[in-house]
Structure formats: structure tokens, C-alpha cells
Amino acid sequence: MNVTYRAYFLMQALLPVVLFIFYWKGAGSGSDLTLAAAVLAAIRLVSLGFRYQKEKLWNKINRQHDQRTRSNAHFAGYMSFWCTLVCLVAGTFLIKNAYIDVQYTQFIAYTVLFGFVLMLVIKDYRNFSQ
């Protein structure tokens, strides 16, 4: 859906708000992973706002689904998938041989968060650098 940059910014602002609510009141209260995800989402949102302000894009149309942005999103998902898969295999080997002292569930959660953040960073970098 092609919307203005302002509407897209407001939709993106929901993620950090929801994560902070979950951290303080919801199911993940006290979880370091929830707090880390909320802080990363807030940092991404602030940088997005600064970029929109710098380039004066607030009232312009954000064309999200043209061929270039779709191919960048596919590439970012592909890279994120393979990095997550390699991290999970390597981490399983390291945990099984007791080289690192982390539970499997924590490791999986941190790896999935890493993969998600990596996908967002690659997609944003490729979309905004061209």
C-alpha cells in the first residue's frame, strides 16, 4: 500500500510502543529481550524520523511496492534467513559442547531477534542508498 511518509511513520511507531507496554505491563514483563527489541525499534524510528525531516518527505507518497523495493525486501529476507540458519547451527554445536553457557530457548529467541533486525537493516540500507 502506498501511503504518505507521515502515515508510514505512525504505523512504524506502533512497534516500539507495543513492545514497551509488553515490557512494563504485559506478558514479557521484565524480559531483557523485550526491552532490547523495544530500544532497537525506538532507535530505528528516531533515525527514520530524522531522515524524513532532513529530506522533507512527510507529505510525499511512500512508494513501498515498486519492483526495486520488493526485490530489496526479498534479498534482505534471503540474507536474514541464511544468517539465522548458520547462527542456529553454530550455536547448537557450541551449546552442545558447552563452549557457551546459554539455554536453547534464549539462544533461539536472540537469534530470531538478530535475524529480524538484520533483515530490517539490510532492507532499509538497500532502499535508501539507491
Uncertain spans: none
Largest sheet: 2 strands, antiparallel
Overall strand count: 2
The total of helices stands at 4
N- to C-terminal distance = 21 Å
**What's the shape?**
flat
SSE topology string: EHHEHH
Strand content: under 5%
**What is the structural class?**
mainly alpha
What percent of residues adopt helix (DSSP H or I)?
over 70%
Radius of gyration: 17 Å
Average pLDDT: 83
Oligomer designation: single chain
Biggest sheet strand order reads: 1-2
Question: What would you say this structure looks like, in words?
Answer:
The structure is a single chain. The chain is mostly helical and 130 residues long. It has helices spanning 5-24, 32-55, 67-96, 104-129; strands at 3-4, 61-62. Helix 1 runs antiparallel to helix 2. The longest helix has 30 residues, at 67-96. The protein is flat and about 55 Å long. The mean pLDDT is 83.
List keywords for this structure.
130 residues; mainly alpha; two-stranded antiparallel sheet; 77% helix; 3% strand; flat
